[in-house]
Specification:
The protein is α+β, with helices and mostly antiparallel strands. The chain has helices at about 15-30, 35-50, 95-110, 125-130; strands at about 10-15, 55-60, 65-75, 80-90, 115-120, 140-145. It starts with 11 loop residues before the first strand and ends with a strand.
Length: about 140
Amino acid sequence: MKKKDIKPDTIYYTTNFDVLREVVNKTQEIKNNDLLVSEFIIRLGRYVTNKSGLVLVSFNESKELNGCMVVSRHIDRIGEYVWIDFAWINPRYNHLREKFEEELVGSCRIRGIKRIQMRMSRGYKAMNKLWGTYEIGRILEKEVI
């Protein structure tokens, strides 16, 4: 992927080292991110070398990263699923959310994968009030139709 050939707000799959470095740097910029960067770098390397994951990126008109998503393929007793390891979209480019979702769902359909999973880490007040508990994450799943 050459920067001069990039079209703004288009989703690309990449293994380009410089772009992967930008994605890793983005994980460090995000507030309240509990992702362990050293582990994330190891996983990224594994995904690229054995093709068990994908890195999707998009750029703005100035050829700067404005969205990225790192996903990996897994299997459990129910079947195959895609796990979203990391996703970020610049708030100024909210229209990219749908594009990333469409790209990911399309990729799952092609590969016959029926589920997409991700983890979130906010918004758990009810159980805290009732039991005094706290959550450090929650797993969400979307069915691919």
